[in-house]
Amino acid sequence: MELHGIFPAEDMSWQREANCLGVHPDLFFPERGASTREAKEVCKGCVVRDECLEFALNNGEKFGIWGGMSERERRRIRRARSLERRAVVGA
Ligand code: SF4
């Protein structure tokens, strides 16, 4: 099974529940500056949204909508988590 046209090695069984199965992958990789609204609408009702987002964060996915979030939104999360980790190590 594939999601976003990618065949990863790790356990991706959560994909079976993905709301985007059968939706054209292009929707999740809009051109720069194009709307992400449609893709995010699909993600909104997805029961594996958290798994999808964590997969993207863990694998450093730089492009596309994953877990209902854009690259920029994921970058913000990664930065916040990195700061949290540093704060814990420095505590
Ligand atoms: S959160 Fe969005 S991209 Fe991820 S599996 Fe669900 S519908 Fe697909």
Describe the fold and architecture.
It is a single chain. The chain has 91 residues and is mainly alpha-helical. It is built from 3 helices and no strands. It has one domain (13-90). Helix content is 42%, strand content 0%. The model has no long low-confidence stretch (mean pLDDT 91). Bound molecules: iron/sulfur cluster. Residues 3, 18-20, 28, 42-43, 46, 48-49, 52, 65-68 line the site of iron/sulfur cluster.
Describe the structure concisely for a colleague.
This protein has helices spanning 37-44, 49-58, 71-90.
Please identify the structural class as seen in this structure: mainly alpha
Radius of gyration: 14 Å
Summarize the biggest pleated sheet. none
Helix and strand run: HHH
Bound molecules: iron/sulfur cluster
| Cα separation of the termini | 43 Å
Please state roughly what percent of the residues sit in beta strands, choosing from under 5%, 5-15%, 15-25%, 25-35%, 35-45% or over 45%: under 5%
Helix count?
Answer: 3
Please estimate the helix content: 40-55%
Shape: globular
Average the pLDDT over all residues and give the rounded result: 91
Overall tally of structural domains: 1
Spans where pLDDT lies below 50 across 5 or more residues: none
Q: Give the total of beta strands.
A: 0
